[in-house]
C-alpha cells in the first residue's frame, strides 16, 4: 500500500514537474519569440484577455467540431512580418528555446477560418497568423499580358486584379464591379472566404464548368515560403511553387498576393431552377449544358437534391425562387422516389438587353430539357445580388442562431461512372430524409483544371461535386455526433462499392489516408514540401506532415 502511495506521489510529482517544465518552456518560447520577431504588427498570447476576440476566434473554425488553443496569435501588418515570423520559428533551435523539448513550433495561417475540420488551427506549439487585415489592397491592372490562363474560356485574359491573400472575395467583387464594371470569372457560392483560403483548396462554384475552379484563374502569386523567402511565381516563373501552392492546402507557403483574371461583368442574371424526378434525366441534362457551353449561354450550372415531401427545411419549399410562384406538388409524377433533383442555371445579360430576347434565348436553351413542366422557377436579379445570394441566408441564419452552430460538412468529388450508384445508395437511401441543409450536386470538367496544381481529382473527364452542407438544429434535428456518424457511413459506403472519389477540402489523420488521397501524386506533394517548407512548420492543422526539429 505504502509502495503504491509512494508511486502515486512520485507520479503526480513528476506530472506536476512536467507541466511546470512545459509552462516554463512555453513562457521562454514566448519571450524569445517576442524578442526575435521584432514584429511591426502584434502578437497576443492571452486568450483570457477580454479584448482578445482574435485569440478566441483562432481557437475554432466554422465547422465548430474542434477547439485548439495556440501558443500565440499574430496580427501582421505586412509581408515582412510574415518573413520575420517564419524565420524566427525556424531559427529557434532547441537550445535557444531554453526548453528541454526540441523546437516544435508551427505556423497556422488563418484566412477567414471557414474550414470545417481545424485546417487553419494549431495547438499550444503553434502560432496562428491572422491574414484578414494584411495587404488589404485591391488593384486593377490593364495591359497586354502574356501570362494568359491555360484553362480560360471566352473573355478575360487582358485585365487582372492584384489582391492580398487575406482579402474576402466579396470585397474583390464589390471593388472590381463598382470601380470598373469588371469581375473575376470563377467564384465560390459564398464570398465571405479569403482569396488565399480558397486558392489553397480550389474554389468551386457554378462557373467552374466553363472557367475552371478559381485556381485556374490566377496568373501570378506572391508567396512567403516555409523557408521565409518572398517569391513571385507564375506558370513561367518559379512554376513548381506556383502550381504547388494552388490547391496545396497551405503546405508550401503563405499566399500574400494573387493576380486574378477579370472580364466585363454582366449587370443582370436570370436565375432558373428546374425540377426532375429521374436522376438520369437530371444528370444527362446537366452534362449536356455543361459540355455545350458557348459564349452567350449559361455561365453558371449547379444542382441540388431535395426531399420529396413538405418538410419545411429539406422539402419542396426549398426550391422556389420567389413567393410569387410556389411549388405545385400536383406536378410530381406518381413514380417519383423519396428525393427529387433540381438543376440550377444562370444566364448573364446587360441592362440594355431586350427582355423578349432573353426569354427566347432561355426557351431555346432549356426547351429540350427533360425537367417536369411547370416545375420551373425564374428570377431576374442584379449580378452582384446573385453572387452575394448566400450572404442573405447567412444573415438570416445568424439572426436565428443557426450560423454559429457546428457544421459537420462533407464535400466529395465523384467520378461520373459512379454518380448513379451514389444516388441509389446515398441520396435515395441514407439521405432520403435530407440533412437540414443543401445537398449540392453538379458536374465539372477535368479539362478545365490544371493537372500541375496540387489538387487531386477522380478519373475521367466528367466528375461531380457533391456537397452535404449540414446545419445543426438543436432540439429538432439529429445530434452533431449522429451527423458525423452518417458522414462516415457515406464514406464507408463509397469505399465498399469501390466508387472513384476524392474528398474536397480533405481531412485525414493518418499518413496512409493522405497517401491514398494523393495516390500517384503523393511523391510530388512530398517533394514540394521538402523543397518549400523543409521544416514542416506550415499548416499543421491539415495533419499531413509533422514538424521536423
Ligand atoms: P481558412 O479556413 O482560414 O484556411 C483554410 C486553409 O487554407 C488552411 O489550411 C489555411 O492554413 C490555408 N490558408 C488560408 N489562407 C492562406 C493563405 N493566404 N496562404 C496560404 N494558405 C492559406 N468552397 C468552395 O470551393 N466553393 C464554395 O462554394 C464554398 N462555399 C462555402 C460556404 C461556406 C459557408 C463555407 C463555410 C465554406 C465554403 N467553402 C466553399 C469552403 C471554403 O472554400 C474553404 O473552407 C476555404 O478554405 C475557406 O476559406 P478561409 O479564408 O476561411 O480559409
UniProtKB/TrEMBL annotation:
Annotated source species: Papaver somniferum
UniProt KW keywords: FAD, Flavoprotein, Oxidoreductase
Annotated GO biological process: cytokinin catabolic process
Recorded superkingdom: Eukaryota
Full protein name: cytokinin dehydrogenase
Coiled coil: none
Any one Gene Ontology molecular-function term assigned to this protein's record: cytokinin dehydrogenase activity
Enzyme Commission numbers on file: 1.5.99.12
Family: Belongs to the oxygen-dependent FAD-linked oxidoreductase family.
Cofactor(s) required, per the database record: FAD
